[in-house]
Each structure stands twice: as C-alpha cells, then as structure tokens.
C-alpha cells in the first residue's frame, strides 16, 4: 500500500523571524485510503509533489524576505509578497484540506455544527448545494470554503482564487476547504469538476470540521 510521508501536522506559516523551516505535514491516512472517491495516484502527487512544492518555495521566499528585512530593502519586500501569499496560502490551505478528509468521513455533521448549518443555510441539503455550486463556479483554479464569521457569529460560504488563504484574504476562519485546482481531480475525473465535487462529500471529515468550528468560537 502506498504510504504518505512527511512531518506531523503542525500550524503552518509561522512568524517570519522563526528559524524553524516549514515542513510537509504527514497525512493521517494512506494515499489509497480515500478510494474510490479520490484515488491513490492523485493523493500521492497532490501531497508529495504539489504541497511539497509550496512548502519548499515558502521556505525559500521567507529566507529572501528575511534578507530584505535585514537590509531595509522595502522594494524587495514588496516584490516578494505575491510569492509569500501564493506559497504560504498553498501550505495553509492544503494542511487544512488533508484533515478535512477521512476514509471514515461522509454523511452529515452532528451537534452544534449541524445546528449552525441549519440556522445559517436552512438545511444541510441547502448548504451542500450552495458550497458545491460555489466550488463548481470557481473560474480557473481555487478553493470553495465554509468559514466562520467571528464578528457576525455565523457561517459563510466563500470562494478564493488560486491559493489565496481564506482568513488572510476574507477574515473568515476556515472550517472546510474544497480544492478545485485540476491537480486535485483531473487524473480521475478529467475536466468534469462536478463529478469530483459529488464524490468528495463521501470523505468529508465532519469531526474535524466540527472541532474547527468549536475552536473558532472561542
């Protein structure tokens, strides 16, 4: 069986002055564990190649940014911002994504998360339909998200382009992210994104999403 590799899941994108480099988080399941909904080849490439690239480029960019800070080179600092956003966002987003999935996932959430979904979307079916529609509608590459609006005390659905991190660009606390970059599904679903989105609901880890929701309200 294909094994996942990397370090344990840790909080991504720490302080720029930290000497500790970002590392590829380990998956809490094997690459083939989400089959038949997401096949092992996709998971292996997605995790060990794509996510790893974001981590490596983030570390390189942070080193350059530290040098620019030390020199007081504001122009260089500004020029590095897009790379920090893209690679930092890619690391943040995927670190959440892996934990949002589980071979024991699917079904519906329970408890306070389910109550919040009913309150803010009318029903779980309505919520599922809306998040699916938003994710299908992402032009090019990006993510569909369920987030928590702490100021308003409610759940919200949002889409982010490319690897833009949800909280860093919208202020919403990320609870559930659906990656709709083609590398997340093309080898299995070709260009039929709706089929991938239909399948992914079978492996959503509602325990993880519920835990994130409880934490976000503190």
UniProtKB/TrEMBL annotation:
Q: Listed GO molecular functions?
A: manganese ion binding; superoxide dismutase activity
Where's the Manganese/iron superoxide dismutase N-terminal domain?
A: 21-102
Which enzyme class? oxidoreductase
Q: What does the UniProt entry say about where the protein is found?
A: Mitochondrion matrix
Q: Mostly located where?
A: mitochondrion
Catalytic reaction equation(s): 2 superoxide + 2 H(+) = H2O2 + O2
Instruction: Please give one Pfam family short name.
Output: Sod_Fe_C
Q: Ranges for the Manganese/iron superoxide dismutase C-terminal domain?
A: 109-212
Q: Do you know which InterPro entries this protein is assigned to? A: Fe/Mn_Superoxide_Dismutase (IPR050265), Mn/Fe_SOD (IPR001189), Mn/Fe_SOD_BS (IPR019833), Mn/Fe_SOD_C (IPR019832), Mn/Fe_SOD_N (IPR019831), Mn/Fe_SOD_N_sf (IPR036324), SOD_C_sf (IPR036314)
Q: Give the EC number(s) under which this enzyme is classified.
A: 1.15.1.1
Report whether Oxidoreductase shows up as a keyword of the record. Answer: yes
Q: Which GO terms describe its cellular component?
A: mitochondrial matrix
Which keywords are on file for this protein? Manganese, Metal-binding, Mitochondrion, Nitration, Oxidoreductase
Q: Which positions does UniProt annotate for Mn(2+) binding?
A: 46, 94, 179, 183
What cofactors does this protein use? Answer: Mn(2+)
- Keyword Oxidoreductase in the entry? The reply is yes
Function, please? Destroys superoxide anion radicals which are normally produced within the cells and which are toxic to biological systems. Destroys radicals which are normally produced within the cells and which are toxic to biological systems.
Q: According to its UniProt record, which protein family does this protein belong to? A: Belongs to the iron/manganese superoxide dismutase family.
Quaternary state and interactors: Homotetramer.
- Tell me what this protein is called: Superoxide dismutase
Please name the taxonomic classification of the source: Eukaryota, Metazoa, Chordata, Craniata, Vertebrata
